[in-house]
């Protein structure tokens, strides 16, 4: 059996083994290699290196005689250096660690007479010899916690342990640290095992810390009985202070009996035991905080994934680790240097318990710039939807970097280059990607892809369609060959074409030289582009040194036969760092440096051979870089029938700062592009510092700040506190013009005045040349400013908010101190105390003490809103929906939990709309969520818009389904086959049905709660009519109901209109819509839609009936569909919310009034307290009976001030305060959420129901009028393109004359977009046609042209344009 496997398991494998046996003798034998030169030997080894690139064994999935033969032949060669053949070198190392191959090596080297000589292998880094290590006896361990995916920091730990396992022929234990049941997840265990297998690490033993829980428990009790551990019930905060102050616990000297008694309470998980922990009695006076009686056991009631509820006490990692290491036979424990202070604790446990000693070797952890490696922080990115998951290519997880193109060999080489050094360094990503490039560069086939936008044809005279064969890799023939098609028409990129000149010579790569005879250009005044080129081949000219090199693609006609070389639709995806700051300091909040613009997609036309790529294939796109195929090209997707492009992820190569196209003009000159602060060039949130810094965020020279101040003082400039490198980069003496007159202040004033002048010229329509001259002056002024200060000019508004905060705080410190002194010298009066107390509990401020410099000693919480809506809208919205308890995050990206606060709003919308549609005769139904593939593909035009977002179910358990089932993205294809069965006659019509359900659309864009999610709740109505007029009337009736939902329930004004042809529902006749406006972001948003489908779907699904007037003829039915989603909640929150939190319109609030008892002082007698509560409850009952949704908050462990803030944050429309004196007077105090109605309003209980209803109605009206005013002020009529662009930049919605043609709409969107945001967080996308409003601002004149300057068509309507969600 074993011989059979060594010779191959199948006839095909046996044939391959025969080939390699012959090859090892005929090509690698002593006769062939001893007399051959270095070049021929290198060629032989390079071929083997290419073959081993993707293989572990030569044949099949295990060692065969082929491996022994080739390995033995390599061992028999003299003076062979494999260091430059990475794949072959890896394979030799792998084989050499296995005993059968070691025997083979010994015999082969003895056979050549050089027993001591071995194959030279590449240096794999510097590794420290382990003290006391013996061959075959070393045992190491890798103990991850199953609370997340492995990142490359974990990979370093795993690979270091594997190195010593293999180097000493020892054992590697993979142990899951499951000491904390709160964090342990079985799912993560499976993921980690997969990651370890992906790294080609093969542990000898798998174990869990929980396997030893019983033994660890006994060792803990042994310490107690020895007087070396005690149970402590000191509160956690007090214990922390005691340890910091080195104060022993009151329980430290408890008797053994007392400790064992309290220990039993802990093991039982009793109320008393939950407040206790077990501490080791080490040294409370130690300078090492880790030895100050650390906790070794704690009580937890969560179920453990493996032991269930067997235990109520669990050991800490620091206590369990040394015990388990010793019990499992670990000889050497490799730990990162963060554990250095805990090493004495580790050895103390082993010593006191009499366990075998384990040697600890410390190494530096892997620190990488522009990312985070904390599982908690990585989880935040996943929950926020900023990445697609744990395997996102922007993530530092093992799966993430491998999906982005990292190879196992590249990762190993990088780790090997680090070795087991203790030097703590902050690595740049370039280092790891440079290692990877060495692996992929020699073996990556080369292809061509061109940017689709602006592509230019080159017509070659005298050329016919043909093909030729060229190498896939010019330096490595072993990679193979490819067929290149030649044709009289080829395509070039616009950027390349712009760099060419008539009469010049260019080189078409893999073809030859071409003489350019004509270049056709067009100009629109601001830019020039090439439309086509003409030329003729000059293949006799082989001088390629001084020519422009061009990548190109052939245009090969296939008519009437199929095209032999169709181009491949391709999307190239480039990524940036997720953190904009290179090195985060301990005091930095990583959320302040999140990069929200990390992905760029480029539509390309690719080489025909890209159609053959498989997922995971690595290729090199000529002049663009390395890419990995993430999604192969599919000519006809089996699920949707649509063509799916080849998706390529760019692989960083270690030195390219940003993936861009190389211009034709850059033939030889290399641009020096700094890699420092690369991610900071992207737009960042408003709270992110915009000043670029060098690698370190401070000087490396301790004297550098003082040197900088001295240098500036010498030059006449004021000193600066910012540390800037001094040396060769230091600036020359100050320019004398402005600097001599006013120094920095003078030049700042000049820059400001010049900027104002330029803005004024632009707004008044000045000539471009005149503006350009003034801009040149401005640039010169900024250059002088840089000469003066050594820094780039930044306007005052762009300075870091954190710096301003520090300065503000510093300025206030003396005031604080003076204030404290005055308070000590002169006590405040009772009135002053009362006013101060009132000011301190102003609604909205109590929870934001962290943001108030004058907070003093007040307790700081983060329960309230921490950012302002007008300063950082994105973060404000994120905080609003979570702190107001609308949503909670879920572990599936793009899916969110609707909390009761949000779901109750949806229930109110549901109740209102459901009642109204039933008045129209609509009935509720429910159809299944699964859609068959055949039904989904029935209407291809309709499903084309949804195809990329369709989620498919392909398996049941472990069994593949016979046909994949889609989860409904919408229900047309689910319902309409059934309608066809229901409709047999005109008497069966109309059909009016509606269903309330959820749908799934697997969005690839950045998900936003309520606005764009992968699953959302909605209602979808579907109706069928016999005639068109009835159907069209219903479309408008439903749209009016949607308007009422927004305006009457949510107090949100909307614009009713019709969608343009481009934006209408796919497959329908037309779409009507209501659009809302979000002032804070300057964007419109689609609120709800009502579609008239005409007869399109009825023809597709055969929904017809016999014509009552012509019996033998059939008429196709007319259909509508209409839908409203939980987006309503997000729109309402964004429009009405303020800096204190959510603001709920009263008719959309499940709690319209909250009643809060006040005046509950300790001096209040119990009978009065009870009477107050009973009075409040009776009053709440009266309001509820009167039709007011009211609730009372009788919790006594929260103060009234805390409740005021909490309900303000949650947006409750009205708060009613009732105290003992109010009860006596029969009055209540009302406070509206918006602070109107004169602040606090006192009303009589007798008239309370009517008064409360009136106040709530006025509150709704105020909200609506405020939002309506905002909408009206921000919708402007424009007539010219310049007005269009100017008003768009002011965050306006635009009513512009429009021809309603789709190509024109595409141009408007494209050309109104900004290249980048002028300020952090500002939208930069182009204007989209939101709708054609029913209420037109004025009639369109006969001579009125479309607003776009390049369009010559007459305008048909005034269309609402704007940036949108």
Report on the structure:
The chain is 35% helix and 19% strand. It is of the alpha+beta class. The strands form twelve sheets. An eleven-stranded mixed sheet has the order 30-34-35-41-38-37-36-49-50-48-47, with helices on both faces. The protein has a seven-stranded mixed sheet with strand order 12-25-26-27-23-24-13, with no helix packed on it. A hairpin with a 4-residue loop joins β19 (512-523) and β20. α4 (38-51) crosses α6 (86-96). The protein is globular.
Whole-number average pLDDT? 81
Globular, elongated, flat, extended or rod-shaped: what is the shape?
A: globular
Looking at the chains present, what oligomeric state does this protein adopt? single chain
The unreliable regions are: 111-125, 656-742, 797-860, 1315-1323
Structural class: alpha+beta
Main sheet properties = 11 strands, mixed
What portion of residues belong to β-strands?
15-25%
Give the helix level as a range of percent: 25-40%
User: What is the count of helical runs?
Assistant: 39
The total count of strands amounts to 50
What is the rounded Rg?
A: 37 Å
Distance between the termini: 65 Å
**For the largest beta sheet, what order do the strands appear in spatially?**
30-34-35-41-38-37-36-49-50-48-47
């Amino acid at each position: 059996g074993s011989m059979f496997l060594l010779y191959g398991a199948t006839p095909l494998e046996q044939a391959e083994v025969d080939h390699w046996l012959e090859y090892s003798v005929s090509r690698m034998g002593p006769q062939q290699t001893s007399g051959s030169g270095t070049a021929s030997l290198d060629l032989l080894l390079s071929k083997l290196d290419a073959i081993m690139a993707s293989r572990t064994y030569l044949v099949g999935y295990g060692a065969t005689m082929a491996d022994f033969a080739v390995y033995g032949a390599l061992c028999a060669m003299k003076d062979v250096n494999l260091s430059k053949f990475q794949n072959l070198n890896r394979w030799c190392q792998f084989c050499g660690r296995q005993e059968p191959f070691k025997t083979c090596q010994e015999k082969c080297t003895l056979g050549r007479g050089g027993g001591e000589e071995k194959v030279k292998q590449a240096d794999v880094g510097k590794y420290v010899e382990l003290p006391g290590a013996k061959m075959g006896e070393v045992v190491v361990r890798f103990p991850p916690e199953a609370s997340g995916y492995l990142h490359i920091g974990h990979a370093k730990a795993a690979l270091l342990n594997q190195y010593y396992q293999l180097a000493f022929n020892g054992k590697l234990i993979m142990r899951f640290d499951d000491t904390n049941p709160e964090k342990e997840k079985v799912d993560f265990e499976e993921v980690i095992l997969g990651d370890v297998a992906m790294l080609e690490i093969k542990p000898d033993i798998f174990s869990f810390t929980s396997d030893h829980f019983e033994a660890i428990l006994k060792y803990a009790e042994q310490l107690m009985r020895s007087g070396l551990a005690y149970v402590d019930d000191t509160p956690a905060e007090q214990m922390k202070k005691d340890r910091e102050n080195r104060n022993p616990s009151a329980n430290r000297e408890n008797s053994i009996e007392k400790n064992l008694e309290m220990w039993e309470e802990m093991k039982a998980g009793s109320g008393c035991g939950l407040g206790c922990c077990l501490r080791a009695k080490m040294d409370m006076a130690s300078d090492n905080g880790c030895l100050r009686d650390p906790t070794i056991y704690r009580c937890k009631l969560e179920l453990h994934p493996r032991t269930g509820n067997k235990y109520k006490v669990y050991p800490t990692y620091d206590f369990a680790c040394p015990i388990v290491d010793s019990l499992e036979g670990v000889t050497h424990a490799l730990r990162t240097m963060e554990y250095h202070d805990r090493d004495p604790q580790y050895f103390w446990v082993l010593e006191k318990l009499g366990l075998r000693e384990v040697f600890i070797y410390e190494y530096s952890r892997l620190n990488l710039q522009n990312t985070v490696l904390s599982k908690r922080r990585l989880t935040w990115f996943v929950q926020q939807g900023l990445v697609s998951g744990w395997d996102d290519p922007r993530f530092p997880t093992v799966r993430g970097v491998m999906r982005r193109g990292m190879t196992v060999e590249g990762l190993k080489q990088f780790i090997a280059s680090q070795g087991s050094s203790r030097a703590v360094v902050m690595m740049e990503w370039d280092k790891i990607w440079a290692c990877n490039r060495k692996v992929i560069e020699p073996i990556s086939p080369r292809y061509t892809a061109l940017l689709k936008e602006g592509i230019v044809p080159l017509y070659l005279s005298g050329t016919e369609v043909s093909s030729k064969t060229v190498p896939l890799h010019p330096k490595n023939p072993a990679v193979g060959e490819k067929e290149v098609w030649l044709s009289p028409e080829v395509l070039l990129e616009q950027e390349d074409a712009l760099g060419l000149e008539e009469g010049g010579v260019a080189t078409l790569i893999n073809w030859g030289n071409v003489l350019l005879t004509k270049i056709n250009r067009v100009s629109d005044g601001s830019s020039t582009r090439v439309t086509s080129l003409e030329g003729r081949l000059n293949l006799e000219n082989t001088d390629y040194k001084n020519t422009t090199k061009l990548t190109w693609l052939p245009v090969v006609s296939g008519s009437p036969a199929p095209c032999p070389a169709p181009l491949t639709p391709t999307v190239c995806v480039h990524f940036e760092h997720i953190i904009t700051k290179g090195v985060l300091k301990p005091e930095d909040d990583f959320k302040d440096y999140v990069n929200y613009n990390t992905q760029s997609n480029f539509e390309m036309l690719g080489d025909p051979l890209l159609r053959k790529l498989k997922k995971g294939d690595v290729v090199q796109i000529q002049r663009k870089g390395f890419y990995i195929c993430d999604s192969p090209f599919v000519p006809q997707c089996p699920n949707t029938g649509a063509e799916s492009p080849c998706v390529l992820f760019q692989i960083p190569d270690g030195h390219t700062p940003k993936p861009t196209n190389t211009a034709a003009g850059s033939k030889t000159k290399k641009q020096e592009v700094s890699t420092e602060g690369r991610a900071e060039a992207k737009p960042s949130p408003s709270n992110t510092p915009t000043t670029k810094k060098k690698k370190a965020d401070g000087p490396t020279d301790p004297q550098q700040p003082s040197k900088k101040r001295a240098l500036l003082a010498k030059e006449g400039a004021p000193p600066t506190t910012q540390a800037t490198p001094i040396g060769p980069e230091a600036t020359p003496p100050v320019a004398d013009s402005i600097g001599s007159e006013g120094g920095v202040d003078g030049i700042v004033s000049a820059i400001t005045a010049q900027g104002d002048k330029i803005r004024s010229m632009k707004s008044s329509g000045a000539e471009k040349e005149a503006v350009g001259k003034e801009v040149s002056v401005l640039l010169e002024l900024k250059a002088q400013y840089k000469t003066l200060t050594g820094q780039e000019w930044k306007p005052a508004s762009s300075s870091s908010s954190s710096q301003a905060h520090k300065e503000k705080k510093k300025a206030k410190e003396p005031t604080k101190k003076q204030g404290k002194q005055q308070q000590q010298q002169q006590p405040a009066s009772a009135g002053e105390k009362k006013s101060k107390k009132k000011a301190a509990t102003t609604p909205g401020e109590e929870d934001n003490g962290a943001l108030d410099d004058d907070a003093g000693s007040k307790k700081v919480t983060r329960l309230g809103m921490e950012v302002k809506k007008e300063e950082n809208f994105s973060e404000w919205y994120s905080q609003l929906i979570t702190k107001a308890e609308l949503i909670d995050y879920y572990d599936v990206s793009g899916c969110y939990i609707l909390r009761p606060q949000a779901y109750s709003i949806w229930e109110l919308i549901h109740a209102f709309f459901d009642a109204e549609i039933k008045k129209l005769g609509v009935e509720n139904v429910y159809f299944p969520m699964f859609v068959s593939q055949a039904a989904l593909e029935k209407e291809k035009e309709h499903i084309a818009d949804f195809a990329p977002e369709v989620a498919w179910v392909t398996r049941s358990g472990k069994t593949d389904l016979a046909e994949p089932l889609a989860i409904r993205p919408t229900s047309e294809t689910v319902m309409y086959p059934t309608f066809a069965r229901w409709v047999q006659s005109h008497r069966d019509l109309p059909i009016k049905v509606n269903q309330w359900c959820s749908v799934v659309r697997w969005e690839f864009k950045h998900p936003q709660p309520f606005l764009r999610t992968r699953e959302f709740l909605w209602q979808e109505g579907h109706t069928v009519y016999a005639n068109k007029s009835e159907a069209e009337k219903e479309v408008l009736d439903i749209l009016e109901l949607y308007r009422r939902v927004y305006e009457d329930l949510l107090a949100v004004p909307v614009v009713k209109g019709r969608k343009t042809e481009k934006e209408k529902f796919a497959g329908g006749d037309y779409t009507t819509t209501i659009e809302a406006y979000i002032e804070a972001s300057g964007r419109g948003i689609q609120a709800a839609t009502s579609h008239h489908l005409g007869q399109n779907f009825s023809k597709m699904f055969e929904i017809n009936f016999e014509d009552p007037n012509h019996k033998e003829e059939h008429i196709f039915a007319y259909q509508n569909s209409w839908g409203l989603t939980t987006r309503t909640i997000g729109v309402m929150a964004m429009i009405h919310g303020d800096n204190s939190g959510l603001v709920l319109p009263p008719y959309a609030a499940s709690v319209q009034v909250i009643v809060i008892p006040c005046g509950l002082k300790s001096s209040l007698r119990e009978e009065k307290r009870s009477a107050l509560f009973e009075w409040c409850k009776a009053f709440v009952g009266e309001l509820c009976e009167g039709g007011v949704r009211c609730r009372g908050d009788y919790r006594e462990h929260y103060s009234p001030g805390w409740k005021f803030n909490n309900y303000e944050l949650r947006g409750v429309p009205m708060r009613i305060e009732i105290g003992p004196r109010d009860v006596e007077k029969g009055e209540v105090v009302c406070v509206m959420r918006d602070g109107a109605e004169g602040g606090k309003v006192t009303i009589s209980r007798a008239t309370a129901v009517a008064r409360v209803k009136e106040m709530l109605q006025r509150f709704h009206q105020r909200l609506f009028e405020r939002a309506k005013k905002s909408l009206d002020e921000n919708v402007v009529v424009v007539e010219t393109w310049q007005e269009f662009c100017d008003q768009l930049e002011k965050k306006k919605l635009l009513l512009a004359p429009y021809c309603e043609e789709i190509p024109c709409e595409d141009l408007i969107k494209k050309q109104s977009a900004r290249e980048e945001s002028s300020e952090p967080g500002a939208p930069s996308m182009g204007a989209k046609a939101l709708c054609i409003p029913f209420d037109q601002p004025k009639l369109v004149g006969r001579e009125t042209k479309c607003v776009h300057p390049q369009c010559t068509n007459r305008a048909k309507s005034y269309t609402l344009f704007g940036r949108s969600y």
